[in-house]
Amino acid sequence: MKINGATRVFYCIADPIEQVRAPELFNHLFDAYDVDAVMVPLRVTPDQLAPTLHALLASPTVGGISLSIPHKTMAVGLVSQCTHQARIAHAINAIRRGPAGIEGELFDGLGFVRSLRRLAFDVAGRSVLLIGAGGAASALASALAEQRAARIGLFDPDTSKAVQLAETIAQSFPDCRVDSVPSNDPAGYDLVVNASPLGLRAGDPLPVPVERLGAQAFVYDILMKGQPTPLVTAARARGLRASPGFDMLVQQASLYLEFFGFPTLAAAAERHTADLRALLETPAPVRPATLAIPSTCSVRGAHRPK
Asked: Packing angle between helix 135-146 and helix 108-118, nearest 10 degrees?
């Protein structure tokens, strides 16, 4: 990858930042398809989010921003407009400049649903325990309700956040039973999802007591760091199906690229999701020496938004 004065710069913003995998994925695609762009990880504390976004987006060199923990909810109030789905979840994970100002989008929910479909898990009529009530959890709860989950139980140590999220989702999806639940007991749930930070730090407790998982339960941990995560490892050790969160990122890749103005590269990402999963299965920063997405044509110059 060569960086020059014409290189379009994208940022992935989080706090902490060490766990993010988006720069690895997108830089691999930029490099494989000869796109003059780069994504840079940037640690930004919550109190500095607003001035940082303002400064970065003032530069025409910056093509857009990917947001991760804990900024997805706070950033909604910093954009000029966002989609209906983002308003329901009150969260965004992508930002760009648009004709009417700064635009925000939310891809977590759709990426999650796409991943469940690939894994042949149908949400309709199922019960879901969702651990966490932040921006990612909001996106997932909204998507699960839209996909006609029968019941969603929300657990967060901050009960007020879980209650508020449950009320918000229930208002938008009255046919789905959404409750704040008093414990993280997964017994009786068909799908158990960790959308909390538990697992980012060594010594964190498991998000749920795995011995209470049902024999047919499906476990999904959206964390990117330390694959497989302790929760996925523990669930698999009990013979249960468990999926790592990087598949959700892979399923969002084409959505991000389309949003950032790379339609040709977005189509390529759709064709090579298996290769992208293989890339992220390897702990960062190590990459498989033989992994290479075929590049039959260059898409240089096809990256500028309309």
From this structure: 60
Residues with a catalytic annotation lie at: 72
For residue 138, the SS3 value is helix
Could you tell me the CATH superfamily of domain 8-107+247-281? Leucine Dehydrogenase, chain A, domain 1 (3.40.50.10860)
The domain made up of 109-245 is a member of CATH 3.30.1340.30: no
Residue tagged 């990402």 (tokens): 269
Bridging pattern class, strands 62-67 and 94-98: antiparallel
How many Cβ atoms sit within 10 Å of the Cβ of residue 86?
28
Instruction: Give the per-residue pLDDT at 202.
Output: 86
Answer for the pair 32, 90: CB distance below 8 angstroms, yes or no: no
Q: How far is CA 207 from CA 114, 181, 185, 248, 270, in A?
A: 23, 14, 10, 19, 32
Q: Please tell me the predicted confidence (pLDDT) of residue 266.
A: 98
With 0-12 / 13-18 / 19 or more C-beta atoms within 10 angstroms meaning exposed / middle / buried, residue 205 is exposed
Q: Name the pairing type of β-strands 241-244 and 218-221.
A: parallel
Q: Are strands 177-180 and 151-155 parallel, antiparallel or unpaired?
A: parallel
The per-residue DSSP string of 169-202 comes to: HHHH-TTSEEEE-SS---TT-SEEEE-SSTTSST
pLDDT reading at 82 higher than 90 = yes
Per-residue DSSP letter, 53: H
Does the pTM of the predicted model rise above 0.85? yes
The string of DSSP codes covering 79-117 is SSEE-HHHHHHT--SEEEEETTEEEEE--HHHHHHHHHH
Task: Tell me how far apart the terminal alpha carbons of the chain are, to the nearest angstrom.
Answer: 25
Residue 241's pLDDT is what?
97
How many other C-beta atoms can be found within 10 angstroms of the C-beta atom of residue 159? 14
Tell me, what amino acid is at 200? Answer: L
